[in-house]
Amino acid sequence: MKIKRQKQAKKNISFYKYNFSFREPFQILVDGTFCQAALKNKIQIKEQMPKYLMGEVQLCTTKLVLNCEQMLYGAKLILQRYQVRKCAHFKDPIPASECLLSMLGKTNPHHYFIATQDHTLTTSLKEIPGVPLFYIILNTIVLDKPSEASLDYVQKVQLGELVSPTQQESIRSLKEEQGLGPRDTERRPRKRKRKGPNPLSCLKKKKKAEPTPPKKTEDGQKKKRSRHKRRKSSGVVTAPAAPHQ
């Protein structure tokens, strides 16, 4: 039975890896009901989960689940050993099941596994495609088979009606290689470099040459400029002297 269970788990994990881009380390959100069942059945979650999934795991919970008053003290001690994910309900408490649902959203973008014994929560989670579920039965951790919502999603992707997360990543990487990013409205505005001052404007202005004042005589009067008049030649023409006989 153990070998058969591991083969089925391997098949289910491959389904989520191929169709929903799940990768190691697998993130597993654990609630108080799962820890109480593990404590009752003497199951070491931290030791058995990596063996069952045949890979590295990260066990985590939320602040609200960790501080749930209805949880037994032993289960709370187990949860305190796990990583704590931030949620928006610590100041305004809501039921733990609603907190885990809010962590997944509509598409489970962070690829969480959910470990819970809450049947109401399990019913709601099966309506979200791509959510692997763990539960404890007969002193054993079991990974549930893919839900109908997950199978319908994969079928629509294969028919070309939807785009899978793997295809979205491939399209995004191809766009980056071709230099096609998001729209200009989504891009960050480029900061313009501050230009320095114009070097020509930093030059000192040349002073205009002042006209030289006229020279003054010793008496303080301006020296008059003397003009030389040309002598006009007289219009009388003298006759040449007669030669001597």
Overview of the structural elements:
It is built from 9 helices and 6 strands. With 245 residues, the chain is an alpha/beta fold. α2 (32-40) crosses α5. The mean pLDDT is 79.
Helix content: 25-40%
* Dominant shape: elongated
The total count of strands amounts to 6
CATH class of the domain at 2-147: Alpha Beta
The CATH homologous superfamily of the domain at 2-147 is termed: 5'-nuclease
CATH topology of the domain at 2-147: Rossmann fold
Q: What order do the helices and strands come in, and which of them pair?
A:
Layout (H helix, E strand, L loop, with lengths): L1 H19 L5 E5 L1 H9 L4 H9 L3 E6 H4 L6 H7 L3 E3 L10 H9 L7 E4 L3 H7 L7 E5 L2 E4 L4 H11 L6 H13 L68
Write a brief structural summary.
With 245 residues, the chain is an alpha/beta fold. It is 36% helix and 11% strand.
Any key phrases for this structure?
single chain, six-stranded mixed β-sheet, elongated
